[in-house]
Amino acid sequence: MRPDDPFDDAVTARAVIAADGTLARWSEGARLLLGHRSEEVVGRPAAELLADSAGPLPLPADRWSGTLVLRHRDGGTVSVWVLAHHRQPSGDGPGEWLAVTPLEATDYDLPDDPLVRKAVFQSPCATMVFDHELRLRGVNDAMARLLGLPADHLRGLRPTDIGGRPQHSELERQLRQVLRSGRPHDMQTHMKARAESYAHAWLARLAPLTDRAGRVRGVCVTAHDFTEQFRARERLQLVNEASMRIGTTLDVTRTAQELADVCVPSLADFVSVELLDPEEGAGEPAGRLSPPVSLRRVAQQSLTAGTPESVAQVGEVVVYPENSPQADSLVAGHSVVASVPAGDLDPWLAVDETRARRFEEYGVHAMLSVPLQARGTTLGVAAFTRFNHPEAFTHDDVLLAEEVTARAAVCIDNARRYSRERETTLTLQRSLLPRTLPRTAALEAATRYLPAARSGVGGDWFDVIPLSGMRVAMVVGDVVGHGIQASATMGRLRTAVRTLADIDLAPDELLTHLDDLVLHLSEEAGGDSGPGEVGATCLYAVYDPVSRRCTLSRAGHPPPVVIPPGGTAQHLELPSGPPLGLGGLPFESAEFELADDSVLAFYTDGLVTSRGRDVDQGEALLREALSGAAGPLDETCDRVLNSVLAPGGAMDDVALLLARLRGLPSSQVTTWDIPADPALVAPIRKQVLDQLAAWSLTDASFTAELVVSELVTNAIRYGAPPIRLRLIHDAATLICEVSDTSHTAPHLRRAKTWDEGGRGLLLVAQLTQRWGTRHTAEGKTIWAELALADME
Q1: For 313-335, what is each residue's pLDDT tens digit?
Q2: pLDDT per residue over 87-124, tens digit each?
Q3: How far apart are CA 164 and CA 145, in angstroms?
Q4: Pairing relation of β-strands 366-374 and 377-386?
Q5: How far is CA 137 from CA 98, 126, 674, in A?
Q6: CB neighbour list of residue 173: distance below 8 Å, 6 or more residues apart
Q7: In 10 A of CB 638, how many CB atoms?
Q8: d(Cα 381, Cα 386) in Å, to the nearest integer?
Q9: Which pTM value belongs to this model?
């Protein structure tokens, strides 16, 4: 037996009653009081000790104190005062701890004891005195009320005898420390008085008591109730924690989960957050509410592994009928407190047997429902449930829940508005981007677009534009800023690029015109207050599959990456032009000859920039991911995004365009030099028909002959030599091009009834898929495309 074991005591009578009602242990003090030796009573029913053994000992589930008449071994009776409470013994099963003191005065009832005289028992503070053996020598009335036990009957008990709770074991440990050190000590503890429904916070002052020789003879314990200060500090701490932890993101679900996490276990044992679904076609939740109310659960948190509401999980829609706290608080527009013991939840639980069974299983005793309201709109409800917390919700708890919920509601409303605006912007952005890429013989393309993870949708775009002569333009751009305005500006710039590309401007000239447009847009955005902040970067490239040459120009945009067949990726060295919107600065072009099956990678800076690494590291990762891009381009796009982007997502929008270049075989291109003699048009037509027969395109002979005749005749009549005719074809298209050195462009017009000319170009426009004029440094080229599928 340990030296500090309470049974090693010849003064206070103590016993342990097993779960079956038999005596399990018997102290020496009990033998001295009742005369029974341990071996005589251990194992026998404890009720046999009663003078009237008609019934069992009156021991309740928690704690009991009162007067009993016990049977002495010599046949007499002894009136004693008994303190009994639960204890988990070292043996098998639970038991009861009994501390028994006789009602007659004992050696410890010493009013002239110097230890007692030093204690101020008239103080309003709860005070008790222990001797050097940690037996209670006296308590004042305030401490007796706190413990809920008679003051006269507590003398001689140990701290663990008084309650057996963990805080009393801690008190005993601290008392021993004061006895050893002789220095005072302060400790905080929480105790619930018998008349109270909630635990008080106490600050206990443990001061050593010494005799005249300076020897420590005991310890005086003075308890100060600072419950209100403690609770106010807890409430302030929870509000402060809520302001720091709620609203860290603009995600509705995450914000709701932060509300639930903050309030468990500080305010409740289980918290659920449920939101009203927005009305169809509107961005706001429903306005007027009436039961039953349908709510979607977006977050929940529980003190235990399970929840008292397994009937609803995150993401599910729950319908709350009338008389449920959630529906009542939403309809009333204020908080609703419901108590299970008071029967407030009976009507609701009566119609939901599963929930009622779970509430009973978990011991739910109180619920608090607080509507989530922000900017005059009801967003949903937060429900706080207590089952492990023994106290009911107080008025201060309601105020605290309302304050925390109000903060969360504003954050949820901000997140909802941001999500709605982001969704609108993203829809606009995707509608302005090409949904499908054109199929051309010059290249195979694949693209990806990813909106920014945090900063919102921006103005990144890409495009693939078929040009005359089988050429293809590739463009990637990035508008400064985020949101709807950036997406709208992107749409205007993309339309402008397609318009300028349609008239076959050189890349540097196209960027010059685009720069002027951005300046005009900036002036419009600024209004009377001055120029706005509209800017963009752009990279424009034109690939000619006949010559296998690519001409590129950039305006403040990252240069593209080229991956030769079987080679390693490397950046193309291009002149660095200024961003669009500065005005007055020139743009330069660069031309490269690229082998067949080379891959060009165009991207925006959101792909290679990331928090925590510089651009050079991002570009190195990009080149590594692109090296050996011999497989399908879609797979290469996915590999690039997975390898280059940071785990948290892109900081800015990402646009990626990959193009595998395919040169046109020389066998599909034929060129003739045309003499400036109208009489030689007929032989030219014959040569064209022979070439179409060699290409097995005889179905297109009639239309091609008419188009060639008209274009060549116009070049001879109105153009300037030298004149050249070129035919180009692939599987789907036949292109006729006539070039001369005159810069005068023909115009389509409607000839009058008696006009002898003016119908040639109208005839060409009717017979071909499309036609146009391309200006070059040497002159112009008039071209026309015939769809071969229409000729079959």
Answers
A1: 888 999 999 889 999 999 999 99
A2: 554 444 445 566 666 654 444 443 455 555 555 556 67
A3: 18
A4: antiparallel
A5: 19, 14, 128
A6: none
A7: 13
A8: 17
A9: 0.62
